[in-house]
Design goal:
6 helices; 153 residues; 0% strand; mainly alpha; 77% helix
């Protein structure tokens, strides 16, 4: 439903701008009573167009962040706000990714150490770390596998 309303508002805005242009042209080339009648007709059409635009636009639920409105009020380009916002999001994502990788590395190292210190818990540690949502790899598993294959364990 929203795209239909937005298309309608877009069409009404174009019509209103066209009426404003016609009023500007008629007032610039004012020659007398015939132009006066044309200006009255265009003014009434503009009034109707603005009323229709207002009633249609009131059904739009799009919310504009106050920060963007403030940027525009200050004469700044809202694209600057968007660029700064994207940069902050990217920075935050990189920070969280680093924390996630650090904790994942700690989890894997801790699991490897627990498995070596308490071999009877290795199965449980493998179960916990091996879950897909955990995404872990136990450090030392590769070493133990190589030792088993070489017969050094």
């Amino acid at each position: 439903m929203a795209p239909v309303i937005l298309d309608s508002v877009d069409d009404q805005l174009k019509h209103t701008i066209q009426l404003l242009y016609q009023i500007q042209s008629a007032s610039h080339g004012y020659v007398g009573p015939s132009t006066h009648q044309e200006l009255l007709r265009l003014t009434h059409q503009l009034s109707d167009s603005l009323a229709s635009l207002s009633s249609t636009a009131s059904h739009i639920t799009t919310q504009i962040p106050p920060e963007i409105v403030q940027y525009v009020d200050e004469g700044r380009n809202p694209d600057i706000y968007t660029r700064e916002f994207v940069e902050l999001v990217v920075k935050g994502n990189q920070y969280l990714k680093g924390k996630q990788e650090a904790f994942g590395g700690f989890r894997d190292a801790l699991a490897g150490e627990i498995s070596r210190a308490w071999p009877e818990m290795k199965e449980r540690v493998d179960e916990v770390v091996g879950k897909k949502e955990m995404g872990g790899k136990i450090e030392g598993d590769r070493e133990q596998k190589e030792q088993r294959e070489n017969g050094t364990v």
